[in-house]
C-alpha cells in the first residue's frame, strides 16, 4: 500500500479538494482506496457525505481499545472508503503526547499499517498545523503533496515544511508541491508558473486552475469528476492524478 498525504500549513489552499479528487480518480481506476480525514473540520468527510457513527475517544483509538477498522465507512463510490473525521480527533495530538515515549513512537503508522491488507492507496487529509500528529503523519506517508497558491506567502509554507522535516529529522521519501487556484489573469501567477522558484524543482507540472465550479462539490457532496468531467479543473485533476501515479512506486 502507498500512503500519501496532502498537507500545507496554510489553510484553504486546496488540501481537501485535492485529496478528495485524487481519491476519486484512484478508485475510479479500480485501485482500492481509503481516505482518512485527519482534519477535525471534517471537510472531506462532508464532501463524501459521510459522518463518523459515534464519537471515538482518541485515547481508545491510540491504545487499540477501539479498533480503527471499526471507523471505516463506505462512500457511494466503488473502491473508495473513508475514515470520517471525528470532532474528538482535535484531541488526537494531545493524546499522542500523553502516551509513553515508547508507546507514542509511530502510533499513526501502526494504525495505518493493517489497512495494507485491503487497500492499495491510503490518502491522509491533514490539518493545517505543525504538531506531534503532523510529525507522525509525515513519518507515516511515503509521499507528501503540497498544494500551493502561486504567491510568496504560500511558498513560505513550503520552506517551513522543509524546515520542519529537518528539525524533526524526518526523511520524506518524496515531497512534491503543485500549484492550485491558478488564475492566469494575475501576473504573479503567470510569472511563478513560467519561472518556478528553484526550491520547487521537484514540483509537479500540473497546475490546477481557479474555477468557481470547484465550490459546486459542496452542492453535490461529491468529487468534481463525479458530476463534471469536462471543466478545466476536472481535467487538471485527471492530469494531476496521472502525474502523482508516476511518482508512486506501487502503480
Ligand atoms: N482550484 C480551485 N478553484 C476554486 N476554488 C477552489 C479551488 N481549490 C479549492 N477551492 C476552494 O477553496 C476553499 C478551500 O479549499 P480546501 O478546503 O480544499 O482547502 P484546505 O487547504 O483543505 O483548507 P483547510 O486547511 O481549512 O482544511 C474551498 O471552498 C474550495 O472549494
Automatic annotation (TrEMBL):
Transmembrane segments: none annotated. InterPro entries: AAA_dom, DNA_Partitioning_ATPase, P-loop_NTPase. Residues 1-167 form the AAA domain. This is Cobyrinic acid a,c-diamide synthase. It comes from Methylophaga thalassica.
Amino acid at each position: 500500500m502507498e500512503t500519501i498525504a496532502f498537507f500545507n500549513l496554510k489553510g484553504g489552499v486546496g488540501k481537501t479538494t485535492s485529496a478528495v479528487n485524487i481519491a476519486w480518480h484512484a478508485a475510479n481506476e479500480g485501485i482500492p482506496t481509503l481516505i482518512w480525514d485527519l482534519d477535525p473540520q471534517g471537510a472531506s468527510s462532508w464532501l463524501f457525505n459521510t459522518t463518523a457513527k459515534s464519537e471515538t475517544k482518541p485515547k481508545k483509538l491510540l491504545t487499540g481499545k477501539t479498533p480503527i477498522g471499526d471507523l471505516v465507512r463506505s462512500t457511494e463510490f466503488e473502491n473508495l472508503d473513508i475514515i470520517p473525521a471525528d470532532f474528538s480527533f482535535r484531541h488526537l495530538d494531545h493524546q499522542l503526547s500523553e502516551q509513553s515515549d515508547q508507546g507514542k513512537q509511530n502510533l499513526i503508522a501502526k494504525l495505518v499499517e493493517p489497512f495494507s491488507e485491503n487497500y492499495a492507496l491510503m490518502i491522509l487529509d491533514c490539518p493545517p498545523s505543525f504538531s506531534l500528529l503532523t510529525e507522525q503523519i509525515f513519518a507515516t506517508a511515503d509521499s507528501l503533496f503540497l498544494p500551493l497558491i502561486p504567491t510568496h506567502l504560500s511558498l513560505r509554507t513550503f520552506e517551513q515544511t522543509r524546515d520542519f522535516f529537518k528539525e524533526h529529522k524526518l526523511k520524506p521519501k518524496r515531497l512534491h508541491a503543485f500549484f492550485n487556484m491558478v488564475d492566469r489573469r494575475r501576473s504573479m501567477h503567470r510569472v511563478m508558473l513560467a519561472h518556478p522558484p528553484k526550491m520547487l524543482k521537484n514540483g509537479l507540472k500540473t497546475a490546477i486552475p481557479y474555477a468557481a465550479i470547484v465550490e459546486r462539490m459542496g452542492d453535490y457532496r461529491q468529487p468534481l469528476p463525479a458530476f463534471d468531467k469536462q471543466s478545466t479543473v476536472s481535467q487538471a485533476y485527471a492530469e494531476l492524478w496521472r502525474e502523482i501515479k508516476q511518482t508512486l512506486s506501487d502503480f
